[in-house]
What does this fold into?
Amino acid sequence: MTSSTANPWAWLGLLKWSLTYSDGTRPTDLSPMAQEDREFLDKVMREGIIDENQRMKEILQLVAQRMEKWKEIDGADITEEQEEGLEMLLLELRDIVEQIDYARAFAALKGVAFLLGCIQEPKVPVSTRAECCGIIATMAQHNPPVQKEMLEAGALKTLSDLFFTNDQEDAFQARLIQAMSAIVRQNNLAETVFCKLEQSVPLFESALRKGGSLVVQKRAMFFLSALLASDESDSQRTSEFASVLALVEAEYMATFVSPDTRELSLSLMLQLIERDLIFVDERRKNDLAALGVDRIHALRNMDCDEALHTHAAIELELWEQLLSLLATVSIMPAAP
It folds into this structure.
């Protein structure tokens, strides 16, 4: 899948234009850097610390040069050395944009359009596209102005579409989910936008399917938990994802997933029941209680190494909390 523009490499041209006419220090429609941050940066620059803004621009120039060459050749002709060299630059860039103000400066350099374009371009190696997803996740996390810019760029639609067209690339799919999660988490507007996407529910159903990639499952469960247990979530939202929650109850609270993912599923169910965000009738209460009794018995009799013992102790505590909570839940009448 490539960019929807007539020129699928238009994002590269936009980046090159921006590098020529912008220094990345005057973000358009983004909040300015705080005065105390500017004073701190001025101080460290005078003391000889690397100018991260300049280094960021240098990295983008090198990346643009490499992409310009890749545009003219077949993806199969890209050498491992070239791929690794570019990814080292992207890793350095990711380290820089971990700081909120540098993330905003990168956005001012048309970095969001560049990243989304690169992620969509099939000529670019999948591992490189995955690194670009990682940069998006780093930039967007807890950074409302950057999250807003990504929403305006249609990032959630783009990334979720790509999830379904790259179903043979588990690592790339996991990075796509990580990027979407970072854009959405703790941003009310982004949560609403994602929930309204036609593919939001199918995305979780696919990512959490039995027999799927463990890393994809873990990323998806973390994202689902943040989405359904957020401060803005309500029973209407959880009802929209009822099929996904049914999958979680049927499979993820049993044994086939990784311990981390099972703990996430239990924690999510605890929060949803405690906040009355899901419908609990007699059947659901009895099914969860029966499963909990079985798991508690198994966990208390488990003979395992230290690492698994730690996970077992956490899961045991979660199940005991869930059973205690269920004991206090009044049975709701069955839905008509």
Summary: Confidence is low (pLDDT under 50) at residues 1-5, 25-30. The first helix runs from residue 10 to 21. DSSP finds 18 helices and no strands in the chain.
